[in-house]
Amino acid sequence: MTPNRRALSCAVLLFTVAHLAGAQETIEPLRFEIDGRVYGMPTAEVFTEAYTGPPAVGDTLTLAPELAPLAPGNRTHEVRIDIVAREIEVAPEIRFRAWTFGGSVPGPVLHVREGDKVIFTMKNRSAEVVEVTAPERGASPYISRLAALDPQKARPNAAPTRHSMDFHAGTVAASDKWRGIEPGESIRFEWMANYPGVFLYHCGTPPILQHLAMGQYGVVVVSPRDGYPTDAAVDREYVIVQSELYLREAEVPTHEGDQTEFTEVSGPVLYTLDFEGAQKKLPLFVVFNGHQRSLIDTPLLARPGERVRLYVHNVGPSDTSSFHVVGAVFDRVYYEGNPANDWRGMQTVLLGASNGAVVEFVVPEEGDYVIVDHEFADAQKGAVGRLRAGRPVGPPGAMGH
Ligand SMILES: [Cu+2]
Fold first, then answer.
1. For 78-114, how does the pLDDT look when each residue is reduced to its tens digit (9 = 90+)?
2. Across the strands, what pairs with 189?
3. Of 70, 152, 361, 378, which residue is least crowded by CB atoms under 10 Å?
4. Which helix (H) or strand (E) holds 20?
5. Candidates 2.40.50.140, 3.40.1050.10, 3.40.50.300, 2.60.40.420; correct CATH number of 48-189+202-226?
């Protein structure tokens, strides 16, 4: 039977069963396969739960630039990423009250393999004050690192708002799985990692520009089922997420009428979303991994002769990235992270908003390599990082393998 005819007979069967049972609820989507890719996930479930545990659960959730190792073969991942409001630092002494997935901007990196299933749960805890203070057992590598490093010097906050989740790696009816949930509600749905790549996830609640600019994004790395042709040669791998931050200094109401004035404070300054600036595409900062100095103060590490792989994603929300590493040529670029999109010898890779790439290069010598968005207005605003190559411990080819 052809896939279409099989699907049709399934539809008739489901329709009949639903009628016999007197069911009023939605009929489950058809399930079918094309070229080994699975389509038709159960209808999303929206519910309330008493959950107060860690806001990110799953053993392949990490804090960028780290990427979790994957065991061989396909598996089902039970993943939770809750929505929590957090006041975070995004540049020295510059703080803003972000809306986050899991507790940071960007949210946790999820690593799965092509053909894996993800059973995803998310609670909208935007009305709660959620602490992430200590590593919690069994939560995720992400929570452990966040609690230990606290790279954005976060403080809990509350900002009750409707939110949603859109995984670009998922192939589902957005009207069902990506639906909005109110503060206090939870949603659970499934998706299959049908394509390999470096994919965005983000809140898709209107105005989407606002929800993205408030910090609601992260990436999913879907490793190819059969790997990349260069897997065996790679010594180091890191995740870099680029995004624009549209901020202006927060104003505080005075006690006289509707007039406002700027706060006069010493130390950290509170900034707020500049939605007008966002609509005009005038970011205050453009950053790697959520902080202007994240990859400056903590450089990525490698050694001469090593092959470094970067999983790069440009979130936007509205601008491009001309991703470049000073002193290196990208031996391979797998555009969007798909091994079939195989480019050689590239100096720069151009990433539109929500484009990703896997880039690989050989570290030629001991020294510092500047990672940059070669659109220098963006570099000036913070899209700069560093890879530090220390002294090799042996001849090239004898290290790290
Ligand atoms: Cu949102």
1. 999 999 999 999 999 999 999 999 999 999 999 999 9
2. 120
3. 70
4. helix 3-20
5. 2.60.40.420
